[in-house]
Amino acid sequence: MAGTRLLTRAQAEGRVRTDVGGTDLFAPGASLAWLSDQPALAPRAGHLFDVVASALPTPGAGPVFPGAEHTAAPASPMG
Fold first, then answer.
1. So what's the pLDDT on residue 67?
2. DSSP, res 69
3. CA-to-CA distance for 40 and 62, rounded, in angstroms?
4. By C-alpha distance, which of 75, 13, 26, 76 is closest to 52?
């Protein structure tokens, strides 16, 4: 799985905590996708992504996804 390869590489580079596994990324990722489809929560989706993503880096490693800071919710593919 591509996500596992990316996670393993980020951990090897010291960018992501080593106690995080693929399921640890999948569950909140799926939850964030669901949130963006909820009209009452969609405006907060970008902020919630930032909250979840901020828990991944090792101390002092910087952002896991440089340049991917979110300020607005992504558009819903379901329209």
1. 56
2. -
3. 31
4. 26
Q: In this structure, what token pair is assigned to residue 52?
A: 């979840």
Residues of the chain with pLDDT below 70 are 1, 62-79
Note the pLDDT of residue 56. Answer: 83
Identify the helix (H) or strand (E) that includes residue 27: helix 22-36
List Cβ neighbours of 77 (8 Å cut-off, separation of 6 or more): none
DSSP 42-56: GGGHHHHHHHHHTTS
Spatial distance between the Cα atoms of 76 and 43, rounded to a whole number of angstroms: 11
Name the CA radius of gyration of the chain, rounded. 13
pTM over 0.90: no
